[in-house]
Each structure stands twice: as structure tokens, then as C-alpha cells.
Amino acid sequence: MKRVYVNEKWCLGCHLCEYYCTFANSGVSSMVNALKDKPLRPRIRVEEHDGISFAVSCRHCKEPLCVKGCITGALSVKNGVITVDSNKCVGCYTCILSCPYGCISPDDSGHAISKCELCTKNACGEPACVKGCPNQAIVYEDRDVTDTNKEAAV
Amino acid sequence: MAIDYLYPEYEIVRDYDKCIACRVCERQCSNEAHWYDDGKGKMLCDNAKCVDCHRCVSLCPTHALKIVKSGHTFKENANWTGKTITEIYRQANSGGVLLSSMGNPEPFPVYWDKILLNASQVTNPSIDPLREPMETVTYLGKKPAKIERDENGRIKNNLSPTLKLSTPVMFSAMSYGSISYNAHESLARAASELGICYNTGEGGLHEDFYKYGPNTIVQVASGRFGVSKDYLNAGAAIEIKIGQGAKPGIGGHLPGIKVSEDISKTRMIPKGSDAISPAPHHDIYSIEDLRQLVYSIKEASDYKKPVIVKIAAVHNVAAIASGIARSGADIIAIDGFRGGTGAAPTRIRDSVGIPIELALASVDSRLREEGIRDDVGIVVGGSVRSAADLVKAIALGADACYIATAACLAMGCHLCRSCQAGKCNWGIATQRPDLVKRLNPDIGYKRLVNLVHAWDHEVKEIMGGMGINSIEALRGNRLMLRGIGLSSTELDILGIKHAGQ
User: Fold this and answer.
1) Fewest CB atoms within 10 A around its CB: which of A93, B97, B186, B377?
2) Strand pairing category for B344-345 and B400-403
3) Which chain A residues are Cβ-neighbours of B444 within 8 angstroms?
4) Is the pTM of this model over 0.90?
5) pLDDT digits (tens, 9 = 90+) for B427-445
6) Nearby residues of B446 by Cβ (< 8 Å), 6 or more positions away
């Protein structure tokens, strides 16, 4: 399955991915209206330290701890993408505590969570962070080792 | 001092209705022109620090930024222009030589723009390159004067080593040091994919790039930085750099601040030392001396590689080229006065040398008159800006063109002409690791490939229109050119007729 991968070698720490992500998931047609004087709630975040930077977003784990821990069944895996049903989410934040990558955050209301769903639920088509990255530090690729490849590798 | 205050040349205009204060402009500006003011809750900027490189403009996600020329003016004076006045102030303050980057920006005539191309009508058919084969493959080097046969009548191979180019374009010399590792990687990979050559410049060849050898021209300049037997044998051809269009008569200067660990290793000089190339090659004071170096290099490379001699286009270029052709060189590269540079004294850049169009025409004519044109290939550079310039150059007599400014533009350069500062926001003319990484070679090389492919398509279209299906038939075909608005002296030098004739 295609996933978002990052390459810290090319990450400039420009943080544009955070803005493109928030905009893509805002449902507003203009970036200015979506982001001007509003709190930024990106589903991808740039980690920076000592001149190294890279963006982190949901890894869509094969055995997701967040889904396992979800007490209401709001988190589920659909075609490999971990999605959230905000109608079911009660904002208990169990998933936030259990995600090893720190990729889940409270949403605007604070009563539910928001996380990367690979832009499958918005109008972007493909992940907005990937499209907006000026240096191809974030890519959308299928790097899964298929069973046949695995056998061949062995 | 107040007397030294100069009003900024450019102003950053921010549309505050659009600015979302994402601070990408602040993070991306190596000149620190932008910052976020917590108290005011908005982005502010210092116009004096702006070099007009457009990095912030390009990356601003809401397109809230533009750069304009500041309207500030001195009292109008055609003789003492604002530029001239500020230069005097600068020198009165510093006592130093003014430095500039990139090619001559002064409004001298651009002869490419005063030459028009021909096309077929009725009496000779034009060719459609989409439907019919069109040849742009070029072999650079000495061409044998006649076919020789052995005693059995078989054709003897009397070919000299040549460079094969899929299209008559090469990336001209830009040293590792003047430009970044990633820029070099982009050029090397693009040249490999395109089947053309790039040129190492005078800074040696990074060990990572030896693998691109079949598409590399290694340069030997007066500083002889990074030159070794392995280096000479690493490339497809060896270029002796006598001069450069942007600064004829002086050598390259790389400030110590740019000589990082990697560059010191590649150049074989101590880290942090200024890399000052001498103005002349101290072993070349005549054509005979040049011949010695040409043959030393041929000896070192087993006579398997063509040797290029690169000179700047200066007043006696035709006579000099004739000497070079007789020195044993396989290819002459001529660099016009608009050729770029990472740093050159402003006065030299703007006042020394001649336009490449005139130099090319006179060199080609001279070598033909002397019957030695086929002894050498001719490569020209110094602001070949488009496929049209390329076609005109070939019709004037060039075998191929060198491009570098256009290649830099393809990689992201916005011609801010501040290379000498070493803070290139596009990751090209810098060695600062945080800036170098801004040029991802995966993107850079692709854009270079796209550019050359686009030009190749255009060259074929133009040739097809002329009814020519091979670049060989265009070479030196000055009947395909007409001048417009040129004096009879200019037409005479260019060897072309005026439009309408």
C-alpha cells in the first residue's frame, strides 16, 4: 500500500507541510480563509533538533495500537488506512497516549481526535503534505515488501 | 556613517490580507530579511537585506509576497546613473574592488536577437520532425581531412578521439566549490541521462562523481586544483582553461570560507585556505608552451581523450584560435563576455571581452580561410539562452554550445547575482549544509533533463522548418541567417546578409 515516507536528508524544516495539511483538512476553499489567524492543527508535524528536521505523520501501522486501544470503535483500518469516525469518538485520548509516534492530536473541538488519513476524506486527492513539499522530502510511495518479494529475497 | 547609507534597491511587498504568518519566508531567507514580531503578531521585513532571489516569493503558500524595485532615485542624470553613484559611495567606504556575480548585465547589443532564421517555402520542402528522422547527434573533435586506405584498399581508422553528444549542448564549467555538491550531482546525472557532458570546472572531481566519467569533462586551470593522473583519466575529455568570459585575464577566486572539508580534499588544498588561481598558467606564455601542455595531457591520458582549450572571447580571438588549432588541441571553447561567474571584479565583468556571436563568426571564418576548421571542434558559451540562440550559434559555425546560466536557472537560480556572498537560497552557489540541502538532485537533474529535451525538440522543429534534417547540414550554414538593424561592419563580421537581401 502507498504510504507517506519522509527523508530527513531533504527536509528543510520549512513547515509548509503543516500548513498544507491543515488547509487540506479544513474544508475551506481558500488557504487564507482557512489559516489566517486560526490555530494550526496539522496532522503532520515537523520535528527539529540540532539542524536535523523531518516531518512525522501517522505510519498507518499494520498492528495499530491506537485501533487496539480505542474504546468506542471510532478508529478502524480501511484498506490499510487508519481512519477515525468522529461521530463515535468520545475524546478519551487513549489513542493519543498509545501512539508511539505521537501522531494523533485532539481536534478543534477538543472532544474528538484528528489524525492523518492520507487525504482520503478531503478534496485533495493525494496527500497535501507530499504535494506541498518543496524539496520532495515527503513522498507517497508503495514500499511494502509483498509476500512474493519476500520469498524472492529469502 | 550616515554618508554610507544607501536606500535598498528592492522592496518586499507583503499583502497582509493574505499573509498567514506561517513564517516560511523567515525560515527560508538566508539573508534574514524576514522575521515575526510577537508584539505586533505579524511578519516584518528589512528591505536592505533582500537580494531579490525570490525564494520567499516562490515558497509563500498564499502568494502574499512580491519584490519590487524600490522607487528611490537620485536626481536623474544619464551620465551619473544611480548605479554609478552608489558604486562610488561603496568604494569610498571600503577602498576595495567591487565584486559581482553572473554575466555582464550591461545593455550591450545581444546579437542573437538581431539575427533572424530562415524557413522553407515552396521551392524546398520543410520537414516535419514528428514524422521524419532528424539528427542532432554531434561528434566534437578533429575530423580527418581525407579517407586513407591500407595496401589492401581497406579504410584505415584515422579518427582522432571525439566526444559524442546526443544533442549539441553541454553544461559548462562550474567548479565544485563555486557551486554545491548537489548542484554538481544534478549536472552529472542530467548529463549522463541526456548523453551529453558536464564540466567539472577547476575545482577537481569529487570522488562520488567518478562514476559519471563518460559524461564528464575534467578541467585543468591555472591553479591546477585537484589535478592528478586519475583525474585526467576520469573524464571523457580534458579542458585546459585559459580564460573565462566573465573575467578574461584573471583566474578564479574561491574564498577560504567556501573551502570546506570536502572541497579541501577534492581540490587538494588545506581547509579554509583561499583558492586563488593565478591569472596566467605559469607554464604557458606562448602557443608553443600551450602545445607542450596539450601534449603532456595527451601523454598522460594515452591519446584517448580529446583536449579542449577554453579561452575568453577577446579582441584578437580569431588569431588566438588559429594558434590553438595548431597547438594540437581537438576542441576550442570560446566564452563570450556575458558568460556567468560565481564572482568577478565588476569592472572586468562589465567592460572586458567581446560578444560571443562576433567572436564565433570571426573564429569560424578565420579557421576556414586557413583551411584548418576541421582540425578542431568549436564550442561556444557565454549566454546561450534558448534553442533559437543555439541554432543561430550552430549556423554561425559552432559545433556545440556550452550552457551554465541557463542550467543554473533550471535548477532554481533566480539570477539575483549574489553568488559571491555564498548564501544562495536555492542551494546552488553555496557550501552551507543547511542551504545545500535545498537543492534535491532528484528534482534538479530532472529539470535539467527537461530543459535540454525541450531545446532538442525546438532545434528539430527549427531545422525542419529550414528543410534541414541533420545538425551537420546546419553547421556554418550562414545562409540560414539574416541580420536585422545591423551595420554593414557587423554584418561583415557575422558573415551574414541583412534581412530582405
Assistant:
1) B97
2) unpaired
3) none
4) yes
5) 999 999 999 999 999 999 9
6) B190
